[in-house]
Amino acid sequence: MNMNLAQEWVQSETRRQFLGRGVNAVGWAALASMLGQGAEPALAAANESAASAIGPHFAPKAKHVIYLHMVGGPSQLDLFDYKPKMNDWYDKDLPESIRNGQRLTTMTSGQKRFPIAPSKYKFAQHGECGMWVSELFPNISKIVDEMCFIRSMHTEAINHEPAISYMQTGNQITGKPCLGSWASYGLGSLNQNLPTFVVLVAKPSNTEQVQAISARLWSSGYLPGDYAGVSFRSGGDPILYINNPPGVPTEIRRKTLDGLRSLNEMNYKVVGDPETHTRIQQYELAFRMQASVPDLTDISNEPELTHKLYGDDLKKPGSFAHSVLLARRMVERGVRFIQIYHNNWDTHANVSGRLPDQCRDVDQPIHGLITDLKNRGLFDDTLIIWGGEFGRTIYSQGGLSKDNYGRDHHPRCFTMWMAGGGSRPGAIYGETDDFSYNIIKDPCHIHDFHATVLKLLGFDHERFTYKFQGLDQRLTGVEPTKVIQELLA
């Protein structure tokens, strides 16, 4: 019997493929509902029922998130976790009673000694909250009463790839949806002309030891592909092919897309794959972004006050300062989640030479961002997150002097902070021992942190799920997890 290829494909489709398409239909229905674009009448009713399953469980405190991830693991000992008693331990061995047999990376497990390296940087208390902050953050130290510090973060991951994946997706194995994708899936879009979730990879001024990062970190995993992050490039056009080719006017591009839409609709009627409609919407969004993205990324009309707030690096496209200003502009335009990565925090050596550069890159821009959001009335609705994937060791990796040292990975305790978006201003949560090696009060696991962030976004982490492979999957996994109320305003 003769049949065309499409009919043959439909008849030969496996049960797994059929069920897989059924799962994606829910994702498409939700997307069509959010974007409000012209889906077929048969899908319209499904859109309403699907949309009812998406949205916050209660009124969110945060409507937007700007997540600043310091790739490599910032040293809590040199920035926020002040340990003055370590000055008396200089070059003495880390006591076994403190290490207590905890595993080390292969980079230091072969060392004959684990000499204590006190921070060479001066600390002082700031604000009414009395938070200790290093001299490396002179601008951030001025706004500590706006921030919520967690000094007792901990993770099981000890190497970068699984640790970053864990922090971003709640799982050390890559391929799961990241926090930004969950936020996009749950809250939807506020601007039909820009992505719901945008990723920026800022260029550090010092590139001594950058870590590899990839799109797996902003993947939508088993969520529909529409909820993946859209990466904006740090140089040239923010998105490839955002402009029409020479000689192709907008009218021709519009006519081409209309033709593609007709072909895709014909394919949908034959095959019935809802991902076809997802593809249509992606083409349409790309077309609308041709007008919205150039306006978003053109900062020439920003007043001089803005340039003073964010610092001289604002003039350098792709810098951290430039990236956080774009994040503010995205929040103004309704982008839900902005993820910014800043590399080169993996200080195995040369803390003295590298850490000041890293801090200089982010210090004034972060102060500027928070001040700017407050001035514009956006701070209360925008949650800012800062941190890395783990901390650093009190003992030195390699050579040690009072002027310079290195620190290995340390998952047992590290510091993160939040600001705005319903987080508690001036809060200081958790304590570590004198060596900043073990947590002695109020631990905060990654899952607890994610549950708390979801709470600020309006979600009960136990009920915020997505059916995949027969299970109700969730960001916080299945292990006991709690929302940390002390971090909420």
Characterization of this structure:
The chain has 489 residues and is an alpha/beta fold. It has a single domain, classed as Alkaline Phosphatase, subunit A (3-Layer(aba) Sandwich), CATH 3.40.720. Helix content is 34%, strand content 16%. Strand 2 (123-126) and strand 3 form a beta hairpin. The longest helix has 25 residues, at 351-375. The radius of gyration is 24 Å and the shape is globular. It starts with a helix and ends in a 16-residue tail after the last strand. Mean pLDDT is 87; it is low at 8-53.
Note the topology.
Elements: H1 5-12, H2 15-35, H3 41-51, E1 64-70, H4 76-79, H5 96-99, E2 123-126, E3 131-134, E4 147-154, H6 160-169, H7 179-187, E5 197-202, E6 230-232, H8 250-271, H9 275-297, H10 304-310, H11 320-332, E7 337-342, H12 351-375, E8 382-387, E9 391-396, E10 407-410, E11 414-419, E12 427-429, E13 431-432, E14 439-441, E15 444-445, H13 446-456, E16 466-468, E17 471-473
Parallel strand pairs: 1-7, 1-8, 4-12, 4-15, 5-6, 5-7
Antiparallel strand pairs: 2-3, 4-11, 8-11, 9-10, 13-14, 16-17
Helix pairs in contact: 2-3, 2-9, 8-9, 10-12, 11-12
Q: How much strand content do the residues show?
A: 15-25%
Number of domains: 1
Order of helices and strands: HHHEHHEEEHHEEHHHHEHEEEEEEEEHEE
Helical segment count:
13
